[in-house]
Write a structure and sequence with these properties.
The complex is a heterodimer of chains A (about 290) and B (about 325). Chain A has about 290 residues and is mainly α. Chain A has a single domain (about 5-275), classed as ABC transporter involved in vitamin B12 uptake, BtuC (Orthogonal Bundle), CATH 1.10.3470. Chain A contains 11 helices and 4 strands, in the order ααααβββααααβααα. In chain A, β2 and β3 form a beta hairpin. The N and C termini of chain A lie far apart (about 45 Å). With about 325 residues, chain B is mostly helical. Chain B has a single domain, classed as ABC transporter involved in vitamin B12 uptake, BtuC (Orthogonal Bundle). Helices cover about 80% and strands about 0% of the residues of chain B. The relative contact order of chain B is 0.16. Classes of the chains: A mainly alpha (about 290), B mainly alpha (about 325). The interface between A and B is large, with 39 and 39 residues.
Chain lengths: ~290, ~325
């Protein structure tokens, strides 16, 4: 396998990982218009809960489940007790969720300590597989698969089911949907919780990929996720996937050839998109 | 109108007098040092209030300006080897901050609200990375140590009065700004951007001016901070630095200027006290901050002001419009 192909595959794997984090944000932010600044905190909470359960039971899958459920619960409580009075108040949302981020991250440090924790790969996904005569880590391949699966599920749910129809209609015209006898508030509560659960799931999946976790990862990945949905076009999960792919591939190539500026590339790319096409590459004009 | 309802000039005067007298009655070095930090942080907080409280935009990149000021002073004073050139360093810091504000403002103001916040955060991240990578220039993560400052500032009492004067001057300046036609327009943008635009104002230009002005003031605060600390590292550019400004303004009271001063005091002293008894003291600020955002969106000063007003005049029409204002800010 040539170097280019290897880098490309790694980039796709990284893109899949970023997509897992971004898709929840895209749901909450893009569809509901709620800015959840605590998204990264939920993400890292998922990783820590997954780590703890994985460590206690020895089963990565139980860990993934536990992390996801933890995200679901945090998201549900957050929407129920904090976000609700702020639905029409954007500045309030930013300020409030930033506070929630601080508290969630500090609580995490209180429970697990502020230090870096090692996160091993599950036994079944350790090792390498031969792709075109060259070794490639199984876990990265697994990430690509999971990313695709989540994308397909989200796409199917939003465009092919009645629930998806209600969600999209509720975004367009909440009053009309309410008038048709559907409890829009409740639907939105669940969308919020689902977005949080996806973030937490992404957290568990990223743990073995990074090899270790620490609380500051939350903010870093949240930033990446946001950059991705701005590039891809807000409220467009397919756009988010393509944006994630683009960022993942670019970061991998830059990381190999010009490591010093690799981290800055995302931001530069986002600035470029904002100048040329503020609605995002795949977004409709807003 | 508000001035006639509750004039707080006498209160400020009293507080100021107390602060002037303080060094002569107390010789606690610790207290003086703490107050110097409070004064500088208060300037930084007020600069943020101009954005958040008066223009109604949430920037998460405010640390860029604070950091730009701190690094300008740090780098220039170390390179030029003549500490008396501090004024030149501050001037350069101001110019840099204005340019950075212009560029970042032009790029970020293409989008609104949340997008703006996130993009400014991304820019802050970019500057943070640059400060880490260009270590020839910035000293990387170690930062710049042993900055030689003018001899004047080595005397704590001198520094105390200089910082106090700095705070008072900036306060007067910003109060003049917010009460000028420019400031009124900014507040109108905060209240109803579309209406201001339809009245023929160039909203983008006004927001840019707001960003640049607050950036320049923040850079001055950052420069003074570098003089006080005698070292600069990447923490001046971190997200925590921006969150600090946010906490000070929100806790003290948005859109009041004085709120930021009070907030700076509360946070600096509470931090000192809390960090000695509870390792995760920052969590307490987080909780306090959430409570204030949810239930007292006008902060300490704003809430007290509302109470005094409704006490004097009953819940009249003014009280109602004040309430609405508070809600539209947050």
């Amino acid at each position: 396998m040539s170097l280019t192909l290897n880098l490309l595959l790694n980039g796709v794997a990284l893109g899949a990982l970023i997509f897992l984090i971004a898709v929840g944000l895209s749901l909450i932010f893009g569809l509901m218009g709620v800015m959840n600044f605590a998204h990264g905190a939920i993400f890292i909470w998922g990783a820590y809960v997954g780590w703890a359960v994985f460590g206690a039971t020895g089963s990565f899958w139980l860990g993934a489940l536990a992390g996801t459920v933890a995200g679901l619960i945090i998201g549900f409580l957050m929407e129920r007790f904090f976000i609700r009075p702020f639905y029409s108040n954007h500045i309030g949302q930013i300020l409030l969720t930033l506070g929630l981020m601080i508290v969630l991250i500090e609580a995490l440090k209180l429970l697990f300590g502020p230090n870096i924790l090692g996160f091993d790969k599950p036994e079944s996904l350790t090792g390498v597989i031969t792709v075109l005569d060259d070794p490639f880590p199984i876990y990265r391949l697994f990430l690509i698969g999971i990313g695709l699966l989540v994308l397909l599920c989200t796409h199917y749910l939003l465009t092919r089911t009645k629930t998806g129809m209600i969600i999209r209609a509720g975004v367009q015209d909440p009053e009309m949907v309410q008038a048709l006898g559907i409890n829009v508030r409740r639907v939105f509560s669940w969308v919020f919780a689902a977005g949080a659960a996806l973030a937490a799931f992404g957290g568990v999946m990223s743990g073995p990929s990074f090899g270790s976790i620490h609380p500051e990862l939350g903010m870093l990945n949240q930033l990446n996720a946001f950059i991705v949905i701005v590039i891809g076009g807000i409220g467009n999960h397919v756009g988010a996937a393509l944006g994630a792919l683009l960022v993942g591939i670019m970061q991998t190539f830059m990381g190999y050839y010009v490591p010093d500026v690799a981290l800055a590339v995302n931001v530069a790319l986002m600035a470029l998109v904002l100048i040329v096409r503020p609605q995002g590459i795949f977004g409709a004009r807003r | 109108m508000r001035k006639r309802l509750w004039n707080n000039n006498w209160l400020i005067g009293l507080l100021l007098a107390a602060l002037v007298v303080l060094p002569f009655v107390s010789n606690s070095k610790f207290l003086l040092s703490m107050l110097i930090s409070v004064f500088i942080m208060a300037v930084y907080g007020m600069s943020y209030d101009l954005l958040l409280g008066y223009t109604g935009i949430v920037s998460f990149g405010h640390a860029i300006f604070f950091g730009a000021g701190a690094y300008s002073v740090g780098i220039l004073l170390t390179r030029m080897e003549d500490p008396s050139l501090l004024w030149a360093a501050l001037l350069i810091a101001v110019v840099i901050a204005a340019l950075v504000g212009l560029v970042i403002g032009l790029l970020s103001l293409r989008v609104k609200d949340v997008y703006f916040s996130m993009i400014t955060l991304a820019f802050a991240e970019l500057f943070f990375i640059f400060a880490e990578k260009f270590s020839d220039f910035t000293g990387g993560t170690d930062g710049i140590t042993y900055i030689r400052v003018p001899a004047f500032f080595n005397d704590r009492l001198n520094f105390y009065f200089a910082a106090l004067a700095f705070l008072v001057l900036i306060y007067l300046f910003l109060r003049r700004v917010v009460n000028s036609p420019l400031g009124r327009t900014l507040q109108a943008i905060r209240e109803n951007e579309q209406r201001v635009e339809s009245l023929g104002y160039n909203v983008l230009a006004y927001k840019l001016v707001s960003i640049i002005l607050s950036g320049v003031v923040a850079a001055l605060a950052g420069g003074m901070w570098a003089v006080l600390q005698k070292y600069v590292n990447t923490s001046v550019l971190g997200l925590d630095q921006t969150i600090n400004a946010l906490l000070m303004t929100i806790i003290g009271g948005v859109g009041t200027l004085l709120g930021a001063v009070l907030g700076a005091g509360v946070i600096t002293f509470a931090q000192e006290w809390l960090s000695s008894i509870f390792d995760r003291w920052f969590m307490i600020f987080g909780v306090l901050y959430i409570v204030i955002v949810m239930f007292f969106p006008r902060g300490i000063i704003g809430t007290i002001r509302d109470q005094l007003q409704s006490g004097k005049r009953g819940a009249g029409r003014d009280g109602a419009s004040q309430d609405q204002r508070g809600q539209s800010v947050l």
